[in-house]
Amino acid sequence: MSDLRFDTTCIGNAIVDVISKVEDKFLEEENLVKNSMNLIDEDRAEQLYSRMGAAVEISGGSAGNTAAGVASLGGRSNYIGKVKNDQLGAIFAHDIRAMGVNFDTQMAEGGPATARSFILVTPDAHRTMNTYLGACVELGPDDIDPAVIAASQVTYMEGYLWDPEGGKAAFRKAAEISHEADQRVSLTLSDSFCVDRFRDEFKDFISGGVDILFANEDEIKSLYQTDDISTAIEAVRSQVEIACITRSADGSLIVEGDNTVEVAADTTVDVIDTTGAGDLYAAGFLYGFTNGRSLAESGAIASLAAAEVISHVGARPEKDLKELIESRI
Which pTM value belongs to this model? Predict the structure, then answer.
């Protein structure tokens, strides 16, 4: 279509990541489940921050990371997410625009502060997230510009934003607009704990409004309440056009109808921090898909993008992904 402005519009929680390396003992002392994502209030945020060691502050948020990845690959990327007009909000807006992402969501002038996520990385490179949503909960359907959604090949949404009612309303509005414009809707399940909370709502939304689904093994098994990955994959085949199932070091599976494409993981990098691996996988796949690549090629791009982000601390690429992909694929 000649009026397309963006390959991908990503909608999610606009968050500044505060990343700190900790020992497993720290998680035990704080009663935290490794690899979980916990929603916390402002008091808990202050308590955790006071106990953490040295930290790195990087603009993040799941869908924001995906938008940044698409832009780094050379794609046309747009982001919708709510921040407050405060110091962290200004940092977030600067960082995402500096990555080449279009970001026009109006900042909140009052209410909760810009969100932040305390990401605790243990020596095995796994991450445990504790997120104060703050201004994120203010995102609603009024922040969805119909013209922008209609001009985006894919509108991608993160499951984390399903918690507030305004986020759900924004998702549903965006999905309706996208489909009316003959575009595609994509969702990442984000976390098995999200799935546990909203399983039935996710199933309804997926069957009625999602074309491209992203999930890891735990998330897809939780969605269909099975311990068998094959059973979960068979269940999702009839629900969406494409499902991308990531399996960490075992690579990923891309399911389309009766077809299943196996994609190998890139094992050439040393794993430092797995934060953002799923986000950058989605970025790589969506970039490939919206630029005419095959499922296998899109999966290979996704794996390379994910491998780059786990090779360093932080959930956004440090290398030029476009150059990296061109040299490998």
Answer: 0.88
